[in-house]
Each structure stands twice: as C-alpha cells, then as structure tokens.
Amino acid sequence: MKIKCFYFCVFVFPALFLYTIFVIYPFISSIHLSLFSWVGVGAKKYVGLKNFIDILFGNFKGEFFNAFWHNIYFFIVVSIIEVSLGFLIALGLASQIKGYHIFRSIIYLPNVISMVLVGFIWGLILNPQIGLVNQFLKFIGLSNLAKPWLGDPNLAFNTIIAVNIWRHLGFYVLVMLASIIGILPDYIEAGYIDGASNWQIIRKIIIPMTLPTAQTLILLLFIWSFSVFELVYALEGVQAGPFRSTDVLGTLFYRTAFGGLGSARMDLGLGAAIVTLMFIFILPVSFIYVRLVERRRQ
C-alpha cells in the first residue's frame, strides 16, 4: 500500500495538480462567472441564468445562433473533405508511387506554419487587387472569376474553410497513412489470392479496417470545429466580417468578453455563458458518438 501511495505521489499527483490548476479550476470558474454580469472591473453583479436566457431566447439570440450554425457548417464541410481526401491521398502514398517521400513532406509542410502566419499569407494571396489568385485568373483569361474572396459574404466563410483544409490536410493524410500501413499484409495477400481486384481490396479490407481511425478523426474534428478562432481572426478580424458572415463562437466569445469593433455588448459573464453552452453541447454529443462507435466495434 505504501509503495502504491509513493508511486501515486511521484508520478500521478504532479500531473493531476497541474491539470487541476490549469484546466479544472478555470473551467469551474468560468461556469461560476457565467452567473454574473461583469465588465472586468468593479463589483460583479449576480444575474443568475439571465445570461443564458439572453443568449438562447433574448436579444443576443440572433448573433449566437448565427455563429453556432457557422461552426456546425464548418464541421460538416471540413470533416467530409479532410477525412475523405486524406484517405485518398494516403492510399496513393501507401502504394509507394514514385516520389511519395517528397510528396509526403510537402503535404505536411503547412502544418508547421503558425495559424496567424497562414492567415497573413493567405490574406495577401486572396487580396482582390494584388492577390496571386485573382492575378492568375486574369492572366489566363478568366478575369470574370476574379472575386473579392474575403469581402463577399457569400464566399468569405467557404474561403476560410478552404484555407483551413489546406493548412490541416497533411495531418489527416499522415494519420490515415499510418492506419493503412498498419493493416497486416496477410489480409491483403489473402484477398489477392482469392481473386479480389484492387477496388475490392480497398472496399472490403482497407476501408473497414481504417474506419475506426476515421471515426476518431471525425470526433476530434467535431471538438476542434468549436474552437475555431485564429484563422477567422487573422483573415477577417474580431468583427468576423463581412456582415458577420464568418462569425464563429470563438470570435463571438472574444468580442463579447473582451470587446472589439462592432461589439453589441461587452460582458465577461456573458462570454463565460457562451463557453459554458459550448461545453454543454460538445460533451453529450461526444459521449454519445463514442458510445455508438464502441457498440459498433463490439
């Protein structure tokens, strides 16, 4: 018993202590703060559930649900494209096509660039006047396709999603590649011996055996989709223009809690309520998804 207590103190307690200080305590504090109205200075004013009522049913409802549905749309589009495209590219790399080592390094390269720098670079590339995209379209005679990619409310959010896919695709390629390489060669050889074609090998062996990895990636994408902030902030600023067409819960929280151009209301308590609602939505969905995946495996 003393030995177990010793190992707990040496190996578990330091990590548990840091996790409590930097994760659990701030989370509980934010839930507590969501019950108050506070601008950051002076006394806090207890308002109970008023912040949540304002967000879900009051004057703040339109702005909140606009950002919320953008996060949902972001998750749907990104999960479909990144996981499926990552699998297809990984499948090509697993077949060891000529030059696959170089291609694997190139496709992962954007992941090592900071998100703020990605936003700055793509802000220049997508500039409607001097940007490389519009200049190239004009050069090849397709000037009618040149658009204000970040200035058009109908294009801005999809443009940000495309930039996000460019930045993160390499990660999903490498994860899916590791999953494909991890399949025992005996299964594939047995399939070929039985007369299976390449398509049948992919459909009957590779896809089912990489499905758990894809499901895990989708779950992580769901969680990460609700923490989107840096790229939107870098490309469109805290006001998430044009006309809130790129607003997500991250920018809404920042604008509400800390203020910013076009802020409808600055209140740390209201910002904490937004974060609490995000957690309330993410936790049960993630739990149900994990349960369904585990049941399917069994």
Secondary-structure element order, N to C: HEEHHHHHHHHHHH
Q: In what range is the share of β-strand residues?
A: under 5%
Mean pLDDT, all residues: 87
CATH superfamily: MetI-like
Coarse structural class: mainly alpha
| Count of structural domains | 1
User: How are strands sequenced across the largest beta sheet?
Assistant: 1-2
CATH topology: MetI-like fold
Layout of strands and helices, then pairs:
Blueprint: H1 2-33, E1 36-37, E2 45-46, H2 50-56, H3 61-94, H4 100-108, H5 115-125, H6 132-139, H7 156-181, H8 185-193, H9 198-225, H10 230-236, H11 249-258, H12 268-297
Antiparallel strand pairs: 1-2
Helix pairs in contact: 1-12, 3-7, 3-9, 3-11, 4-7, 5-10, 7-9, 8-9, 9-12, 11-12
Please explain how this structure is put together:
This protein has 298 residues and is mostly helical. The protein has a single domain (63-297), classed as MetI-like fold, CATH 1.10.3720.10. It contains twelve helices and two strands; from the N terminus they run αββααααααααααα. A two-stranded antiparallel sheet has the order 1-2. Strand 1 (36-37) and strand 2 (45-46) form a beta hairpin. The longest helix is centred in the first third of the chain and has 34 residues, at 61-94.
